[in-house]
Amino acid sequence: MASAVLTVRGVSKAYGNIQALTDVNLEVPSGGIFGIVGPNGAGKTTLFSILCGFLGADRGEVLVGGQAVRPNHPPPGGMLTILPQDAKFLPSTPLGKQLKFYAELAGMSARDAEKEVHRVLEMVGLPEVYNRTGNTLSHGMYKRVGIAQAFIGNPRVIILDEPTAGLDPHAAREIHEQLRSMRADQTVIVSSHNLSEIEDLCNAVAILKQGSVVRVSTMDSLLQGATEVSFRLPDPAADDLLAALNALPYVAGARWDKGAGRLRIDIDTSALAADEAGGELVKFFVGRGVKFMDMQVGANLEERFIRETR
Amino acid sequence: MRNIRIIARFEVARLARSTGGVLFMALATIIYAYVALKLVRWAAEVREATSLAGDDPASKILTGFVGWLVDIEPDALAKMIGEHAPFALVFFFVGLAVNPLLAILGTADQTGSDIQTRHIRYLLLRTDRASLYWGKTLGAVFFYGVAMAVLCGLIGGAALWGGALGAGDLLYFGRIWLTLTLFAVPFIALNGLTSALTGHAGLGLVVTLAFYMVVWLISAIGSWAAPAVASIEYLSPSALKFDLASDELVTLGKAVAHMAVVTVVAGLIGSTLFKRRDV
Fold first, then answer.
1. Domain boundaries of chain A, sorted by first residue
2. Which helix (H) or strand (E) holds B192?
């Protein structure tokens, strides 16, 4: 794993009697996309606010690029930017002028700032909003301008709190493509309720539950080590199909998951590895003329998430 | 310093575009235009009524009454009347009287709406809190200074054109502009403090107005019970406001020093609060 660009050590934060974060420890490696997921109220936004120095932690410390961050001690210039979940632009000032202001604050000359604003607006596909004010934009456009401001100056670490919430699928896909095309030395930390988005985008993920980190893992290791193969079928699995599956030597058990609409097959990995069993099961289904829409080896992030946060 | 300059420049434009800024300009224009119209019409009468040349009892009574209103000794006031155009002098006194309200209304929203809407989160990873706080304070001072320059320029020009002022009085009008701008500074500092304290534009305005009114009420009413209570008025930036029109350096110096102390105290408390608060 690459060296950590962001380190959280023993951070706790309470709002009165409500404990928002409890002894959070986290290391985000340099480069790539790191996901943070958790149920509503798990503490994601509070954690982001502490990472940026907007809120002070009651205990613990945050290091960004090796430097401690706390209120009135922001990260080094050009190091970190954020798309906050609920921040607003000024209502009466054209967005282009606001973005130029941010770029100048980040250290650019007026001329460079102007160029940078046009670059980031082009990047999010909204060059025409330069002279418009925020209250004339749709929710999706507003969000994309927020993402554009986070990319001003190409910071090393970009935090995106729910970047695609409320976006249509086309806009969300454009954002995904943009994130994938980032420079290798840039790190993006993303939170999202869309777990397939996190699974699709991220190299590693942390799962938060009730203010604590319950799991930090690379996406590969999270999804591997599997003992299960599952299939999405158009119709519920018939009893004779389940009986035939249970008779296979490498199958420890087969059952129909009504809620997920999937046929779940536990593999006896002492007989066969899960990924090899997947291949054998495909042949089995084709041989019996059983139709299926997809196959998945191991649990996906959503299933892991539900297990970890139950 | 670079970021303070950038923030101050942006703040002037932001305030000028904001709803509050537009309403402030409209209100200030109406007040000053009304006063100017009245003064132009009555300039001759004012000059005649306040003239000491005749040394008549009516003039003495009037001078004494105006002196009581603006808290200036009748002799000093009589001297000022003799040296400055009545239009300019009365405009100066009216300006000093309405300046607290205009300064509070015009510059109430410094960090308040930024904190309230969390716009501040776009800024704080690009600049430090001290630069943001002082940049906004400086921007509010520039905004108010420009607004007063426009109003004083228009009214001074109109008075010159209407014959209420002579060309020689324009320098005094320049002093009026500078004084009204500097007199706004402690109120701007007070607004900065309440903005940082409340994190809300409207609430900050209410707290500033409440502070101003409470200090005035306690000092005015309390002084009837115990004269020492009257000294509470020194908590208010406007305690010595009419002394700012004085031509005597010692009196003027005391008033400026009082404003400076209030500005520094409010500024330091406000910036300390802003540096420590959650946003």
1. 4-223, 228-309
2. helix B170-198
Per-residue pLDDT for B42 more than 60? yes
Structure token pair of residue A233: 């079928």
C-alpha torsion angle, residues A7, A11, A13, A17 (rounded to 10): 150
Q: A4-223, superfamily in CATH?
A: P-loop containing nucleotide triphosphate hydrolases (3.40.50.300)
Chain B residues with at least one Cβ partner in A under 8 Å: 3, 6-7, 10, 13-14, 17-19, 117-130, 275-279
User: Is A52 close to B127, i.e. CB distance below 8 A?
Assistant: no
- Tokens at A77, concatenated: 């210039």
pTM for the model: 0.82
Sign of the CA dihedral A272, A275, A278, A279? negative
> What is the rounded (10 degree) CA torsion for A183, A184, A188, A192?
100
In terms of residue numbers, what domain contains B215? Answer: 2-276
Provide ipTM, 2 decimals.
0.84
- For the segment A267-279, the average pLDDT, to the nearest whole number, is 86
Domain count, chain B: 1
Cα A220 to the chain's mean position, in Å? 14
A228-309: same fold as A4-223?
Answer: no
pLDDT at B169 over 90: no
Choose between B118 and A3: higher pLDDT: B118
Class in CATH terms, A228-309: alpha beta
CA pair distance B57, A40, nearest whole angstrom: 80
